[in-house]
Amino acid sequence: MSLPRYSGYKDSGVEWIGCIPAHWTLPKLKHFTRFTGGGTPNREERMFWGGEIPWVSPKDMKSELIHDSEERITDAGLANSSTTLVAPNKVLLVVRSGILKHTIPVAINAVPVSLNQDMKALEFKSSTCNSGFFLRWVQGLNDSLLLAWAKQGATVESIEHSYLSDTVVPLPPFEEQTAIAAFLDRETAKIDVLIGEQEKLIALLAEKRQATISHAVTRGLNPNAPMKSSNVAWLGEIPAHWTVCAVRRVVERIEQGWSPECFSRAAEQGEWGVLKAGCVNGGIFRSSENKALPDTLEPDANIEVRDGDLLMSRASGSPALVGSVAYVSEPPSRLMLSDKIFRLHLSCDVDSRFFAIVFSARYMRLQIEQAISGAEGLANNLPQSSLKGFTIAIPPKTEQVELVAMVEAEMEKLISLAGEAERAIALLKEHRSALITAAVTGQIDVRGLVKDEAA
Fold first, then answer.
1. What is the pTM of this model?
2. In angstroms, what CA-CA distances link 349 with 174, 190, 242, 355, 378?
3. In contact, 75 and 84? CB cutoff 8 Å
4. Is the pLDDT of residue 241 over 70?
5. Residue from 84, 69, 75 nearest 47 by CA
6. pLDDT for the residue 452
7. Are the C-beta atoms of 90 and 108 separated by less than 8 Å?
8. Which entry of 62, 336, 386, 425 is 20 to 30 Å from 33 by CA?
């Protein structure tokens, strides 16, 4: 569907804004906006915390409309800190956070809130700027604004207030802003529903993946095989000819790597790299998940990753990723293990691919979760002693190979379907972003579309 354009345009005088409708104005943000910052009440004063006033920080900026926050403060906390109460329908903006590397989180508060020091609230003069229009404007010009607002030399990504306040904002008449905001609310809601459906599909496919693996590595391929009790409550019955044992019985040796101070980028051709813990996420080896080793440091060839290696993440920022295991096939040269990665050497009775699949099964994940939750002072860390004590069910090796072939064939189908859903989400998000950008920069005229919908 082609959307109408305005009858006349003019040059905005700002390269990254370009041409705008002829009747739009070009004021600076500071000429119609009052900025409010935030602060943190004293953490040691218990009477300042746990009240009824939402205290919004960057971690709360996950939706376009803010109704609440993870933390709340009391009236005393509000009165005894630099934060203030922000009335509803103001634009909330993250001004200091690592997320500003790629996204400017922006939202509107539906209720009165206070802010922490990494946030700002923008209040516009009456009938000058519509909060919903400005929110969409920030979303639509996100990439350009990241460059225009970035504070130079900051240790953490942040927005320079003087750049923010001096920003030229193309404004249509207030009634037109309201129409644009209403149009985008309606159309983005439709797109978000479609995105949500694809995300649900991906979640269902992930559940199907784990269910398929769990069934295969606890019940086998023959539905008529005689069963026996494993004598482990969370493992249940297994085929009678399988063996239940501790992982230490099948893992002969465990190696760890080295984590020197590396560059933040990945290794380039000819350079050595050190693998990050995320290189085995989801049971898939990703060689690109590495950091380049400075040429001032001597690489250790003994911990270079080789074809056929079995790698496990022993530590991660996310508990769900600890214990991920992947089989390595034809890796690039000059990649070393980090100390967050185990290299497992198995006995000849166990197929490495089978072992990797088992660690995605629910019964194994339960053991991993229990082990890392009980490792005091070692958050999200899997000790070797815990790993060796895990219970595992092992079929004969010929059956292991058959199970691997079956599971890999099923996984290929599920991964293909998930890939299609991910591509659909990417296209929907691209369309959403393009629509917002076109509307808030006047590349399309939505006024008539809003009237038609209302009629």
1. 0.80
2. 74, 54, 12, 11, 32
3. no
4. yes
5. 75
6. 54
7. yes
8. 62
Structure tokens at 384: 């070797």
Contact 274, 260 (CB under 8 A): yes
* Phi, psi angle pair for 116, to nearest 5°: -90, 180
The tokens of 155 are what?
């240790």
Q: Which of 176, 190, 212, 127 is nearest to 417 (CA)?
A: 212
Close Cβ partners of 8 (under 8 Å, ≥ 6 residues apart): 21, 22, 23
Task: Record the tokens describing residue 31, joined without a space.
Answer: 């000429």
List, for residues 107-132, the tens digit of each pLDDT value: 999 999 999 999 999 999 999 999 99
CA 101, distance to chain mean position in Å, is: 13
Map tokens 């403060």 to a residue.
73
Question: Helical H runs in 390-454?
Answer: 397-440, 447-454
- Give tens-digit pLDDT for 354-389: 999 999 999 999 999 888 865 444 567 899 999 999
Q: Residue 18's CB: how many other CB atoms inside 10 A?
A: 14
Residue 29, number of CB atoms within 10 A of its CB: 18
Structure-token pair, residue 282: 């989801």
Number of residues written out for the chain: 455
| Phi, psi (degrees; rounded to nearest 5) at 120 | -135, 150
Q: CA angle, corner 281, sides to 201 and 236, nearest 5?
A: 75
